[in-house]
Amino acid sequence: MTSSWTPRDIPSQAGRTAVVTGANSGLGLETARALAAAGAHVVLAVRDVAKGETAAAALPGSTEVRRLDLADLASVREFAAGWSGPLDVLVNNAGVMWVPAGETVDGFESHLGTNHLGPFALTNLLLPHLTDRVVTVSSATHLTGRIDLADLHWRTRSYSPTAAYAASKLANLLFTLELQRRLTASGSTLRALAAHPGYSATNLQSHTGSAAWNAVMSVANRVVATSAAEGALPTLFAATLELPGGGYAGPSKLGGTRGRPTLVGRSPAASDPDLAAGLWTASAELTGVDFPAALPV
Question: Of 159, 165, 199, 248, which is the active-site residue?
Fold first, then answer.
């Protein structure tokens, strides 16, 4: 299955609804495109509604656009409060990469706030509506990530854009680990999964805030990277197939940089239940959002 799997192998998504964050470009757009082509009603959750509408107009099937800025908890809460009815799949795709030192409007370090804390709050607020699964997009760079619970916002350590990004991607896997533990403990049949795209060319690499890095990444994208459509395959694999909760999907070849999707391993840190629990507690305190008291079973 993994050696030849493509979007044509996605089971029918007719009658299902999916939210894909950051769906106006790159991996999110390709994820939305494939899900809509398979019959799902896809909600493109984007910061720029005009860009979202332009993207949605070129997609097949049933789509709609709603505003969501993961770097602003007020926007996250507004999006969740506006949701009604069932939601089958939530794809936490949107994120930032290698941006200069900075903070979100809520005072969170930019990578952690956008890539982890925003999706953490969004997921927990939407959990009462979910019927199937949450898929959170991580990265192979989580292997070098380090979570310092005493300095999540890099206020005492020397800031490094690459290290901060890697830490946020490690946070994505720790979130998935603890979310699945809580879902299982509550008796819920919902599943939490994660995926990484390998090395895929998207516009994420051109928004680092550094002209030099942008130029380097532009060359690498042309020479080494796979397409965004191929990079989206692990996310689609995790979003549509019967996989175990807590699973992590990624490319199967060349050290996980490319190839058809399969379930892959993760770092020891990403498998640490104590670290996952500690990050969850800190995330709940920072966002004011926690695991719901009751879920459908």
Answer: 165
